[in-house]
Request: fold
Amino acid sequence: MTSHSQSQRDRILWILATRGRKMERSRLRRCTRMRYADLDPILLDLAQEGRIKIEGDMITLTVK
Reply:
């Protein structure tokens, strides 16, 4: 069973993958319907894992 947090991570990655691999943080927040307080820790975890890159307000899906 996956946790609620894991499904949000997968959703963020799916949104980035299907919408051009790059998105502004504010647009990603609207697409996920998440508050910044909930979105930002997930984005930081994904960045530390190397799954995304954060440059200013731009979030980019990375290729492994």
